[in-house]
Every structure is written in C-alpha cells, then in structure tokens.
Amino acid sequence: MTSTQELQRVAQALRAGQVIACPTEAVWGLSCDPDNDEALTRLMRLKERDPAKGVILVAASITQFAPWLEALPLALHAPLAASWPGPNTWLVPDNGRSHALVRGAHQSVALRVTDHPVMAALCKAFGGPLVSTSANRAAEPPAMSADEVRSIFGDEINAVLEGELGGQTRPSTIRDLASGKVLRA
Length: 185
What we know:
Elements: H1 4-15, E1 20-23, E2 28-31, H2 37-47, E3 56-59, H3 66-69, H4 77-83, E4 88-93, H5 100-103, E5 108-113, H6 117-126, E6 130-134, H7 146-153, E7 159-160, E8 173-176, E9 182-184
C-alpha cells in the first residue's frame, strides 16, 4: 500500500492544481481537482480530449458526493448506495455543482465511489472527489502501468502515485440514473 507520506504529497500536488497519474480499478488514470479550471484545462490538453465529453469523478465514499447529490430525490439515492463502492459509474442530473469541463456538453455528471484502495485513499487524503480519466491521448489505448504513463506523458505529469491496478478487466459500467439505461457495459 502507498505510504501516508506519499498520499499527502500527491494530495498537496492536486490541491496546488497539478495533474497526477494513479492506478484505478482497470487502467492507469489521470486525476486532478474537479474545481480547478487550470488543472481541468491542462488535463484535457494532455489527453487531447474533446471538452464536450466530460470526465468521471471518483470519491472514497458517497458522503464525499453530498454537494453533487443535493436536491436529488431520495428514491434515486438507493441505486447509488446499492452499487457503491464498486465499478459502477452513474450519470446523475447536474444540480449546478459541476464544473463545465467535468460535465462536458451533458446535463449530468458521471460519479463513481471507487473500491480501489489507492484511489480511495487518495480521495480521502485530498478531502473530496477527484477527476478520474484514463491515462492516454485521445484514441490511444490506456496506460496499463506507471512506466507506460511515463512513456506517454513524460514530465507533463506532475506526480505518479505508485500502486497496482484493481483487477477489473474493463472500465466501469456507466448507467443513467434517471432512466436506468446502461450506456457502457
């Protein structure tokens, strides 16, 4: 497991608006503060990602998503609670809390409570949800190791949080909370 000192160092880098790489459930990811305009812009540029696509937010617990879930009908909380933590991303109606680059061109925000121990520990050390998007350039395969991240991005990434992938063989399932429709199996 990653040391507390290393987690604090990387969490501080995130608070300072930096973009970092870390292991997730299935692939290596890039993360940044979801409220930092400069960090989000830089992340989109690094990935060469269309800002209209938006990005996923991950948290250590459902309580870290409280600001994003305000005004959500209580009946819609049940599917979230039943599937988290785990590899389930939900598109939740945006209540105005999400940064435009997080939401993209959508009226919803993609949320997941991770069960990956390093990612969850990083969210706890940071004190809230983080952007989590695959570590790759647009249309390229995601990095599967820290060495691949370094090969792709070199010194464009401010920190690499060492750790192992979580054992999932594919990215999280994405469902629309309002309709229940599966958008990515």
